[in-house]
Specification:
Largest sheet: 6 strands, antiparallel
Strand content: 15-25%
Distance between the termini: 76 Å
Order of helices and strands: HEEEEEEEEEEEEEHHEHEHHHEHEH
Radius of gyration: 23 Å
Mean pLDDT: 94
Shape: globular
Low-confidence stretches: 5-23
Structural class: alpha+beta
Length: 361
């Protein structure tokens, strides 16, 4: 009887110790050892990742770690980056669950980034906690990178359909990958943090849906018009604006509902288009008075030979007389649909060369 009581007592002690270890090893979403990139909203219980290319990064010593996650609809995909290299893809469900990010690593110090490759149209993901395994300890957060870039863009910047190798140009979640978009490639080349304020189908004067970039560029939660981003939290050295591709189509579609909503029955003239671009760039400049701003366009058919859209941008920028503002036009890629992975690399190459040639940072 006494031996049995001793065994029960020992079992209780072991159980309590295991529970204590599990509780102590749980790393809540707001722990300072987690470094977030992008416009990440913090709720009372979780970090909310909505925007393209938002991410959570850690350094750890050990062999493996899980994340407690819940996706809004089960539509988002994440690239798991371990020690600077893509190591897997995570597709969280709409049920709150623990997902293995990495396991069976060689003991030692490692870095890990959970990178959102899909855009906010796919919904939100909530990160509640990280769950290191018994052999793993979180270290201090990875240091913030010195250089910073912000991108304002559309589907090109989002990496829309970049994983669709069939030529069908499918933009659903499995085929979108911002990790291999020109924006992410450029940021990695320069060792820069970046914010990706982008949405497929968006324009400056008109979009394929009611919202235009001047109405959403200042949001923290992109789906909530009352949720405002604190621009003091991220001060980019360089801002890249790659917009007007969607405008170039929609201003010629008088039967589209958004044409009717924005313009009535008459297509906008050049003066209106130039003034709209100029106004948006001035809005961006007011938030980032010291940044270099690159007004970029490419590489879909808005830069096709004879297209007026580069000229509109050139005129708008020239009227602003801003010495730290440039234009960059990437030639039409000459293929249908959105940029492939190779064409995204070509975009990045053009942007990288331009930055190297014009910006000292």
């Amino acid at each position: 009887m006494q031996n049995r009581q001793c065994c029960l007592l020992l079992l209780l002690v072991i159980t309590i110790a295991c529970r204590s270890h599990a509780q102590d090893s749980t790393v809540r979403f707001n722990d300072p050892r987690i470094h977030y990139m992008g416009r990440v909203a913090m709720t009372d219980s979780a970090a909310q990742l909505s925007w393209t290319a938002t991410s959570a990064s850690i350094q750890f010593n050990g062999t493996g770690i899980k994340a407690l996650l819940k996706d809004e609809r089960g539509d988002n995909y994440y690239t798991i980056v371990v020690d600077g290299k893509p190591a897997g893809v995570l597709h969280p469900d709409s049920l709150k669950a623990a997902y293995t990010l990495v396991s069976g690593m060689q003991p030692g110090t490692h870095t890990l980034e959970l990178f959102k490759r899909t855009e906010w149209a796919m919904g939100k993901t909530w990160l509640y906690a990280l769950l290191p395994d018994e052999q793993t300890t979180l270290l201090s957060a990875p240091p913030a990178k010195k250089r910073k870039i912000e991108f304002f863009g559309n589907s090109i910047t989002c990496g829309y359909a970049v994983e669709d190798t069939t030529g069908k140009d499918r933009g659903t979640a499995p085929y979108e990958n911002a990790y291999i978009s020109y924006a992410a490639i450029t940021a990695r080349h320069f060792g820069a943090e970046f914010n990706c304020t982008a949405k497929s189908g968006i324009g400056i004067t008109i979009s394929w849906f009611p919202l235009i970039m001047p109405e959403m560029y200042d949001r923290l939660d992109p789906a909530d018009s009352t949720s405002k981003w604190d621009f003091s939290r991220f001060r980019p050295d360089v801002v890249v604006i790659n917009l007007f591709q969607n405008d170039s189509w929609l201003v010629n579609m008088p039967d589209h509902e958004q044409f009717k909503a924005k313009f009535g029955t008459t297509a906008p003239g050049a003066d209106f288009i130039v003034a709209s671009y100029q106004k948006f760039v001035q809005q961006v400049r007011s938030k980032y008075p010291r940044a270099y701003i690159i007004c970029m366009l490419g590489n879909m058919d808005a830069t096709k030979e004879g297209a007026p859209w580069p000229g509109y941008i050139q005129k708008a920028v020239s009227l602003l007389k801003d010495k730290k503002m440039f234009t960059l036009f990437i030639p039409y890629k000459g293929t249908s649909g959105h940029p492939s992975a190779k064409e995204q690399e070509m975009l990045a190459d053009g942007l990288i060369r331009f930055i190297d040639g014009h910006i000292r940072w």
